[in-house]
Amino acid sequence: MAEAAKSPPPFTPPPNEPLYGGYTRFELELEFVTLLSSPLYLNHLASLKLLQSLDFIAYLKYLQYWTQSEYIKYLSYPGPTLKALELLQEERFRTDILSPEVVGLLVREGVESSKGYMSGEKD
User: Fold this and answer.
1) Distance of alpha carbon 114 from its chain centroid, rounded?
2) Molecular function (GO) terms listed (predicted)?
C-alpha cells in the first residue's frame, strides 16, 4: 500500500518576528512564489512592467532560496513554481511572457503535466 504524502511541518516563526498585515515575511513570500506557478499571473506582472524593474528582478533573484530542499517542501506546486523562478531569471522570458501565445503554451504544458500526474505517469 502506498504511503500517503506527508505534509510539511508547520512553519513556526521565531519569537519577535515582525508581522506585515498579520503575516510573517516567510508566509508572504510563500504566497508570492506560489502565485508564480500561474502563467496568467506572470503575464499580469509583465503587463504592469514589473518584470522590467531592476529592483523586482533583484527580488526574483533573492527568491531563489525557494529552490533549496528545506523550502521546497512548503510549495504547493513545486514543479511549476520552480520552473517559473528559473525562467524569470532570463531577460528574454520576462519579455516573451507578454505574448498570449507564450502564456497559452505554458498553460497547455501545465495541463499536460497534470494529466500525466493524475494518470500515474512519471517523467
Assistant:
1) 16
2) transcription coregulator activity
Could you tell me the three cell numbers for 29? 513570500
DSSP symbols for 15-26: TT---BTTB-HH
Contact 34, 75 (CB under 8 A): yes
Provide the 8-state DSSP code for 37.
Answer: T
In terms of C-beta density within 10 A (0-12 exposed, 13-18 middle, 19 or more buried), how is residue 81 classed? Answer: buried
Tell me the pTM: 0.82
CATH topology for 25-118 is Arc Repressor Mutant, subunit A (1.10.10)
Tens of pLDDT along 74-113?
A: 999 999 999 999 999 999 999 999 999 999 999 998 888 7
Q: Which residues contact residue 73 at a Cβ distance below 8 angstroms, ignoring those fewer than 6 apart?
A: 8
Residue 53, pLDDT above cutoff 60: yes
